[in-house]
Amino acid sequence: MQGPDASAALLQLRGIGKSFGPVHALTNVNLDIPAGQVTALVGDNGAGKTTLIKCIAGIWEPSGGEIRWDGHPVHIRSPKDATALGIATVYQDLALCDNLDIVQNMMLGHETLKFGLLDEISMEKTARQTLKDLAVTTVRSVRQTVGSLSGGQRQSVAVAKAVMLEARLVIMDEPTAALGVSQTELVLSLITRLASRGHAVVVVSHNLNDVFRVADRIAVLYLGQLAAEGPATDFDPQSVVEIMTTGRSSRNGNGSEPAVSRGMNGLEG
After folding, report:
1. How confident is the model at residue 5 (pLDDT cuts 50, 70, 90)?
2. How deeply is 93 buried, as exposed, middle or buried, from its count of CB atoms within 10 A (0-12, 13-18, 19+)?
3. Which is deepest, 22, 157, 179, 244, by most CB within 10 Å?
């Protein structure tokens, strides 16, 4: 699961807050997202997971704090800004067009032209090569309509599009939700391959079995604050559930206290 350059903090969040009127959805979130690793972002409903990834993706601008990319402060005010940096978000609805084929979906908005016309051969080659690089072998043809694909295959197409557009950070929102066993295996394998290729990967998931299958690091949100974060080996499912529901844990996978964030309503780290 741990790929090259795993220690590099590609994305750094410092003191990130987000308010909607009087409601504080995020408060003082400090989190590093390394390249070449899978970071799992977990938390109960309303903990702030969606708000945080939307701040990274440029859907919402943080109310406070700083975002650093490759060590440099950046302002992500729109999805276009995020894309320009190399951040791609694969949401649960995937935003794919069922009536278009795989090539058309992967190249949508980035079509290759030749003599003023669509270069179908070049686009098909690019799409096929990207899927091959990610070891996506279950797709019968890149000219299949996306509507004919299984849930796992659709996830693969959405991720392949992000990789094709040279995303350095891929955020996946509940990637295995509503998938069967074989399709879940396909998606989890894809996640680990992304990290092994040097991509930073953030996985938002309620499925702790999946989290512990692929995560190098785990970050737990509780009531809009980062309650704990660290290597996945510092946690076990019981400690994660305890932090998700109470904001702290008395134990973890190796018998010691997990890394609990300071500033959690007086909780000590």
Report:
1. very low
2. exposed
3. 157
What's the one-letter identity of residue 209?
N
Q: Which token pair is 165?
A: 């557009």
- What would the pLDDT profile of 156-194 be if each residue is shown by its tens digit? 999 999 888 889 999 999 999 888 898 999 999 999 999
The distance of Cα 40 from the centroid of its chain, to the nearest Å, equals 8
3-state secondary structure the chain: CCCCCCCCEEEEEEEEEEEECCEEEEEEEEEEEECCCEEEEEECCCCCHHHHHHHHHCCCCCCEEEEEECCEEECCCCHHHHHHHCEEEECCCCCCCCCCEHHHHHHCCCCCEECCEECHHHHHHHHHHHHHHCCCCCCCCCCCEHHHCCHHHHHHHHHHHHHHCCCCEEEEECCCCCCCHHHHHHHHHHHHHHHHCCCEEEEECCCHHHHHHHCCEEEEEECCEEEEEEEHHHCCHHHHHHHHHHCCCCCCCCCCCCCECCCECCECC
Q: What's the pTM? A: 0.85
What percentage of the chain has pLDDT greater than the value 90? 74
**Region 145-166: what's the mean pLDDT?**
91
How far apart (Å, rounded) are the C-alpha atoms in residues 174 and 221?
15
159 CB-near residues (< 8 Å, 6+ apart): 90, 134, 170, 172, 190, 194
